[in-house]
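Hey team,

Filing this mostly as a record. A colleague (T.K.) asked me to run one chain through the structure pipeline before their review meeting, and I want the input and output archived in the tracker in case anyone asks later how it was produced. No errors, nothing strange. Just documentation.

Input sequence:
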Amino acid sequence: MASFELISAVQDYEKYIETNGINEQVIDAYCEAANTAFANEKDIAYGLELSARCKEIIEAYCLNSSGGTIWDLEKYAFKEKVSYEIIEKFYSVLLIEAQNKVVDSFFRYIEHKREPKERFYMPRRKQFLKIGLMDALQGMIDDRYDILCISLIPGAGKAQPLYSKILTPDGFIQMGDAKVGTKIIAGNGETANIIGIYPQGKRKIYEITLEDGSKCRCSDNHLWNVRYNYFGNKTTEKVIETKEMLVNPYKYLIPVTTKSLNNRFYLRVGAIQYKGEEECQCIMIDNPCHLYITDDYIVTHNTTIEKFFNAAVIGWFPKDFNLFYSHSGDITRMYYDGVYDIVTNIDDYAWNEIFPNLHVTSTNAKMEQFNVGKYKPFPSVQCTSVGSKNAGKVRASKFLLVDDMIGGIEEAMNPMILDKLWNKYAVDARQRKIQDSEGKNCKEIHIATRWSVHDVIGRIQNMYEGNPRVKTIAVPDIDPITQESNFDYEFSGFTKEFFEDQQLLMDDISYRCLYKQEPIEREGLVFPEDKIRRYLNLPHGEPEIITAQCDTKGKGTDYFVLPILQKYGDDYYCVDCVCDNTADYEMQYENAANALVNNKVQECEFERNAGGDRVAMEVNKRVEAKGWICNITDTPTETNKEARIFQCSNWILQHVIFKDESMYSPKEPYGVMMSLLKRYSVSGKKQLDDVPDVFSNFAVRITKGNRIAKVEATRNPFRGGVYY
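Output structure:
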């Protein structure tokens, strides 16, 4: 416990600040007080209070002196190659906190040698704090949580210039011509789809020439899965950036494939030449190997919060061991190399400054494991992939880190594979857990793209629903409140405009999985894409009637939905719609009136529930004011909504025909409507049901008196067989 003298001194510092403001003397005094609490009096809790306050007053002093934050001053100092004592004082506080299990401070301190724009954490810190990621990681260290599940947007890989070539099934194309959905050849020879394209701006470009004369160009930070000579006679594999090969390029060998793609081998780097700066972009593919083939059949790589966290954990808990588990050996290799680099690369990282008494004591690159500190039954970091025969070989006492068990959308759509992967996790990975050196249970962190509600994260959430010791973080592309990007990082971030472009290029399901964190319930979809009828052109002649149905907006995220349909024979062609969840009701009335008038709708029924009769009246007034007459009615609904949707789904699939996907964009009201329709499932979980609801009401209206859509007491699939 802190001494009375120390507590009294700190109280005096606060009185001084209140009277005289913040100056360098009081900052020095606070820093010394924090050091005393940690080092001399061993009061970690009070020491952390003092260090947190110390950071506050340094930030305030910096703001008053320079008009910016300490981070702004640091960026300026790097740019101008000058030093400031206040920055050094700030980092001295971060160092103390990093040594005392403060996750944010560890992340900040460990990269302090790197150029600001090359750092991983600080350009992203604001967003990571906002979404609660850092608090969640801290909660794992502080024993507030046992399991943490994280799903974020996919990160960008590393760049190549726009003119570099990528191999497709039909030959090479330029990187700049690549589109989301373009099929390319993965490094394992399989066909893969591009699922993300990420502009990187201008980067330093290098030309790599191999020993046989083949060449390719790439950015300074491009990732390569290389082999290299280790201590003269040993060869190992590692994932490195281009710039890491500049000092001694001749020791590195880069993977190359034959034109027939039936053989992969390695060629030595002959030369690396700087070629200036060029506009670049990187791509993401849906193949588990994450490799693709570029110029002259050279195989290149496309790829880190887990690595940083793991590097911190092995320093804070050197008596324990951690296991990283993923679907692909390529990913585990990158992870092993990444954590090892953080721990051993003293030029880029400051791990040795945080843990001066620890160092790597053993490595086994083939087994993808290394140890820090004293010998223990299992090494500090171990990596293994799904299907590896690791029984008895690997264990986790502190953290089991599970990364992307699902390799892509193909696996997500296969229930048998999902069940198999769950068994691999439950029977293999999870059984590797033992208690830590303090007798506490091993914790789990899961990071994944949420392709399916039946993936590992989804099943964990179901198992532990309501358990406060299981934390889930799922952050979509756009903040639903501010409508701004959640990932607009300081450098190489993702703007709102970027996401809008990606959404236009990608199919709706993939986009929602990758960027909205909305995994698909592929089993139990009520309106699956392969059963929805589509049209490119309307039938010849005039429709028998032009009609509409409206489901008005309730509260929160509910949608105002008004589809417009033209009848030809027994079919109804959905030609237009209003579909939005804005809180501006006046705008909804106006949009609805315009849709009815512009499409010359003859009749429209509003659902009376939740004030629908009032909405119908307001819309009718506006329709008449625009010079059109439409028979607008309102009708109550008394049957259970979910049962009605299920009961009417077959009629909707048989008789309602929707526009071909080429005729609208995902952002348009029609695209939003179709997305909400296709995502609706029998899961029984809370979901947006406004679109299927409005079409079920339409089915009831059209088939009234017809046995097809008669609504009666039925066994509800959403409620475990309860009758309504």
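Quick notes for T.K.: The two ends are 63 Å apart (CA to CA). The chain is about 35% helix and 25% strand.
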